[in-house]
Amino acid sequence: MSHLLIAPILLPALTAVLLVFLARSSLKVTRVVSLVSALLLLYVSLVFVVQSGAGIIEVYALGNWAPPFGIVLVADRLSSLMLLVNAVLVVASIIFTFNVKAERNDNLQPLIHFLTMGVNGAFLTGDLFNLFVFFEIMLIASYALTIFGGGKERAKAGLHYVVLNLVGSSLFIIGLGVVYGMLGTMNMADLAAKVTQVPAESAPIIAAAALVLLLVFGLKSAILPLYFWLPRAYSNAIAPVAALFAIMTKVGIYSIVRVHGMIFNQQPIVGLLEPWLWPIALLTIAAGSVGVLGAKRVRMQIAYAIIISVGTMVAAIAINTADAMQALFYYLIHSTWITAALFLLTEVIALQRGSMADSIVRGPQIRQHTLLAVYFFIGAIALVGMPPLSGFFGKVLLLKATPTGAAQVWLWTIILVGSLATIVAFGRTGSTLFWRVTDLKDSKAKVAISSWISISGLMLLTIGLVIFAEPVLAYLAVLGTQLIDPTHYFNAVLSTEVITR
Amino acid sequence: MELILAIVIAVLTGTGIYLMLRARTFPVVLGLTLFTYAVNLFLFAMGRLHYNAPPVINMSDTHTDPLPQALVLTAIVIGFAMTAFVVVLALRARADLGNDHVDGIDIAEPEPAETQAQEEANS
What we know:
The complex is a heterodimer of chains A (501) and B (123). Chain A has 19 helices and four strands. Chain A is an all-alpha fold. Chain A has a two-stranded antiparallel ribbon. A two-stranded parallel sheet of chain A has the order 3-4. The longest helix of chain A is centred in the middle third of the chain and has 32 residues, at 152-183. The radius of gyration of chain A is 22 Å and the shape is globular. The mean pLDDT of chain B is 85. The longest helix of chain B has 32 residues, at 66-97. Chain B is elongated and about 60 Å long. In chain B, α2 (25-45) packs antiparallel against α3. Chain B is built from four helices and no strands. By secondary structure, chain B is mainly α. The interface between A and B is medium-sized, with 28 and 34 residues.
């Protein structure tokens, strides 16, 4: 049991507190502290990925309480991977904030670290109630970040976002309460063991609790009837925050995979979710495609592209095989990083377009139009899922993992039509932004170096995802088998020995 | 006792949801608060109801499950913080948007000229 496992939670927490106290010191100091902490987090996450890649499932019993009684943190392949995906995003966002004007006000840097703490905690915890607590930490930081910068639109979007999530949190407690009342434990590994022993007459209550929890996670991950808050909240947030939020929907997806895949997909309620997940996935993709085509602003368009990606991932959960899980998480890494990169890129484009900002209308020529157009082109190709970039491989893996029959017909059609809609929409956006232009007004400032580093880094990583596809897929293949057969995880948690004196 | 508790939870939930569906931020905040109360009571009841039973073993003949009490304490603290936040946010939205409608559009004001004048007065 190594104490390193709590670092991804403690490090951002302590950094955030430190940064609150440093609020009045020079910008250089706060930036260095913030960035160093994020880089350390990246390093720690890499250590976990390497460690879990070697087949070790690290378990940390908080307060030295033996599972299933205390709270445990678990770093298996899935958790380590999600930590890494998040750490990369945090580093990129923090570098990008160096060019945000209002950075000093309202404690932007501490809030980013608080959000990171919540997200990392949600990925690491092996306790269902603790998952709720970390959700709340993540959410309260995200509430403040959503309205960061102020203004009418943000206040309106923020209010909807907060009220919806508060209702979601209350439902989460109801789900948790029922699960505890029926099974008498909150430890995920122990819950999985207890579910199988439930008598047949109690099975419907457990099924109800599982569906309430699906509703909660569905709200976080923005699946069909619950996504209406997302486009407005994401497109009105400032760019580095929108980029960071790319991980938030994935926290919902992660929770569905973790909680429903591991605990509830067993006798006596096996196969409970499939009839729900299939239509949800297909309709979410369809709704996202309509939104992408109808969006009037680039950010709104990217927000709807997130909804398409969520639908795609939910479809992978519905398939529920090792291959589908491999595809799901390859697509998840790609989708998180590329949407973040595009949010950041849109911000620098909007800055150079002046009052037109990111509206998809004829406007003045962008100052650094060639370079930005190349970036936009690469980003759009990756997002849409055309070869040779990562989005293509993610989708191909998923299409290959689809079982034959009706599912295949529906999923292939919807995913491919959705991709076509995205191509059309982003093609139109690109040509409007870069070709349908009036005279060049070079009064706008050039793109700052920090912004370039941040965007290029994320883009290079998605390209790296293709170049190093083999080791990544090998890692994900084992991840997939571990998720389908989580015995290894259960054994690691339940056999944890506490330190005795 | 079980029946009373169940009725209380049901009434609180019902009123809470009704108020949350209102169009003004103040009733929505009240509704959220009531709903949180209902949920906390529900979580508490999940440890089953016992009379005169401390949550400590060997204090008396019977003991009650301490975990739901710990969980509900956490939930109360979180719920309280969130309510405080949503009150502040509602006030800020009221200041920024010029009215307390959840969508920021006040349907009750018929005259557009009047609205504009009011917005100017607010800003």
